[in-house]
Amino acid sequence: MIQSDPVIEWLLDSDPSIRWQVMRDLLDAPEREWMTERAKVETDGWGARLLSCQDEDGQWAGGAFLPAGFDPHEWKERGQPWTATTFSLSQLREFGLDPACCCARRTVKLIGASARWEEGGQPYWEGEVEECINGRTVADGACFGVDVSPIVDRLAGERLDDGGWNCERINGSVRSSFASTINVLEGLLEYERSTGGTHRSREARRTGEEFLLVRNLFRRLGTGEPADERFLHLLHPNRWRYDILRALDYFRASAILTGADPDPRLGEAIDHLLPRRLQDGRWPLDDSPAGRVWFEVDDGQGKPSRWVTLRAMRVLRWWDAQPQAVSTPATHLCEPASNSGTGMPVFRP
Predict the structure, then answer these.
(1) Quick check: 53 and 39 in contact, CB under 8 A?
(2) pLDDT of 216 higher than 90
(3) In the chain, what percentage of residues exceed pLDDT 70?
(4) What's the Cα-to-Cα distance from 247 to each of 56, 128, 152, 298, rounded to whole Å?
């Protein structure tokens, strides 16, 4: 049985932020049990550690998107820094900080009062100017109980003709980016989960999903070639970046919310994920975005990753449970250009 799987035991021998998701998504534990474990995110492990790095005004590192006193040379020499408010808050959402806890409610209130975006100076919960940043802001706000409907409405109106989004739209791009699109889709999904969404937001999510699906999650529409070979690498934390596992996990969550069957066009990405599993049943971390972090949550590139393994196992468990599944049978759970998807927010001095 799956409870005796050594990989499951390895995942459970970890941080509360991983354990509660294993209990919910892989073990079908009763809600009261995984919610009890989830509550520990606030007080133990990575969640508590990240909360301890928070400024008195609710921000992290003194800035919304960039740390206070940021030197642009750091981005060139060491990579984009990930310690400011937007990435810290998104990481707490990934950890599963309970939105109902006093700490979460206090945090979003303080951020609303104190944080201003470096681009434009607008209040944090009014959103930034780039689509991928606003997608994450919507996801965080919706998760933690903030009314982000004005940002959602903006995003719905910023779709390109191909159905997705691109942060370079304001610079003239007319083709969507894989990375910008997945960031927005995750935000719209969280908004729909929290509020039910609107007709406009649900339609925007549908066209964004179709942008990815018609490309089998990683191919160029015109040539059929991979839009970026890095899309087939397994990343964590993704931050703004795209990979097929992030997309597959999104479609899993979307299907659970709506009750939809898996789209067969996910099958090719599934088939790329399967052979990446190591002989011991775990999945490796291929890459992490370079740059300043508060602390590491994986053991390093090339080594087995609990985060990647958790996401891969729950995706495959969901996929194999459906009658339309076309991947290898479920035994693998128990046996050992502008459209390149860069979507990277450009530093604006």
Answers:
(1) no
(2) yes
(3) 92
(4) 35, 23, 20, 20
CB 301 within 8 A of CB 50: no
pLDDT tens for each residue of 280-335: 999 999 999 999 999 999 999 999 999 999 999 999 999 999 875 544 433 333 33
First to last CA, the chain: 56
The average confidence (pLDDT) of the chain is: 92
* pLDDT bucket at 4, cuts 50 / 70 / 90: confident
Query: Rounded to an integer, what distance in angstroms lies between the CA atom of residue 81 and that of residue 319?
Result: 35
Which pLDDT belongs to residue 179?
Answer: 98
pLDDT score of 324: 58
Q: Does residue 111 contact residue 125 with C-beta atoms inside 8 Å?
A: yes
Identify the H or E element spanning 161. none
Cβ atoms 182, 228 nearer than 8 A: no
Q: H-helix or E-strand containing 289?
A: none
pLDDT at residue 57 greater than cutoff 60 = yes
Q: Are 305 and 284 in contact (CB under 8 A)?
A: yes
